Amino acid sequence: DIQMTQSPSSLSASVGDRVTITCRASQSINNYLTWYQQKPGKAPKLLIYGASSLQSGVPSRFSGSGSGTDFTLTISSLQPEDFATYYCQQSYSTPLTFGGGTKVEIK
Amino acid sequence: QVQLQESGPGLVKPSGTLSLTCAVSGGSISSYNWWTWVRQPPGKGLEWIGEIYHSGSSNYNPSLRSRLTISVDKSKNQFSLKLSSVTAADTAVYYCARRAMTMVRGSWFDTWGQGTLVTVSS
């Protein structure tokens, strides 16, 4: 199985801050990396697919980069509605696997 | 716009079988997608359970394979999950999701159901 490791597991940030979350795969997954946002009591929401493509309707302050084993999700200017948990997920091979999540909290 | 809705018992006894159905509306289950189950134990992360294609082909998480059956009913535009011999460790919110496929960029879960909490308890 491909292991996905996210860091940090949690962070505190203020509105307007630039936030970066990293995700590392245990082997190369090309660009088969997706980012999701999840708020309490809600289903995950697709943010970024193919490592860097922004899903329709997602604000442009979200961006993704990386290829191979190392990936990042960046929020350029954190907004109040962005406080949530973020997950990466690989689709290179089954079993599909998720990172452990990064909880973004208000400082 | 495709929508997914899970249904099934919210309480299952230990050693019993957990059964859920996901109804697909606004689109055909026979489209170029995999239909997937994902679960999330309370306060924990996401786990891929398995998936099925409209042809009946399936992929299962090896950690659950011996207890798992995923099936599709094209006539009802729905797919189902059965997990046998459940324990408290199977208590989770269960989501159904659509895995959209591409040839170049991989695949991703672009549509999710709202999720349903299943508790395993006597």
Structural category of chain B: mainly beta
Q: Kindly name the structural category of chain A.
A: mainly beta
Helix content range of chain B: under 10%
Question: What summary fits the major beta sheet of chain A?
Answer: 7 strands, mixed
Give the N-to-C terminal Cα separation of chain B: 39 Å
Task: Estimate the global geometry of chain A from the Cα principal axes.
Answer: globular
Per DSSP, the total helix count of chain A is: 0
Tell me the radius of gyration of chain B: 14 Å
β-strand percent of chain A reads over 45%
The number of distinct helices of chain B, counting runs of at least 4 residues, comes to 0
Which percent bin holds the helix content of chain A?
under 10%
What does this structure look like?
The complex is a heterodimer of chains A (107) and B (122). Chain A has 107 residues and is an all-beta fold. Chain A has strands at 4-7, 10-13, 19-25, 33-38, 45-49, 53-54, 62-67, 70-75, 85-90, 97-98, 102-106. Chain A is globular, with a radius of gyration of 13 Å. Chain B has 122 residues and is an all-beta fold. Chain B contains no helices and 11 strands. In chain B, the strands form 2 sheets. In chain B, strands 2, 4, 5, 6, 9, 10 and 11 form a 7-stranded mixed β-sheet that branches. The interface between A and B is medium-sized, with 28 and 23 residues.
